[in-house]
Predict the structure.
Amino acid sequence: MKHWCRMKSLIGDLIVVEQDGKLLEIGFSTGRRPAKPPADGSESAAPFEDVIRQLEEYFAGTRMVFDLPLAPQGTAFQLRVWKALLEIPFGRAVSYSDIANAIGNPKAVRAVGLANGRNPIPVVIPCHRVIGKDGSLTGYGGGLPIKEKLLALEGIATDTRGRKNFALFE
């Protein structure tokens, strides 16, 4: 049985979903696809104590790494991309081509972008840390203002042209 709860945060209301003690989804209340509670789940805050604590610590600037059991649902390719996203350190940004190279498929830049956009556990799986190769901001499920807030929280500055001052991970 899935459980879900609503959480207020620095970036707006979130819907958090878990099953069997593992985080399945974090959904934004705004953006391209506003999240709705799962029809096959029940509302209960009890299973989310650790998730909420860690997210609150992150938004307060005191947590850089999450330690949560995750169970994102996706294709084998999407799971490889999301695993690579987990390797991007706090405070760093990378390009889609960096992720494509990291998963051993340098020609899959567009597919990486699509997988990044389908990340079911944003913030915890840090898809916000992926930007255009030229440093430009690109899409984000919760909207670009939320992406900018998350990057700013991590000390990744945005200049007035919407480009990022970023460093690639090695």
Q: What stands out?
A: The two ends are 40 Å apart (CA to CA).
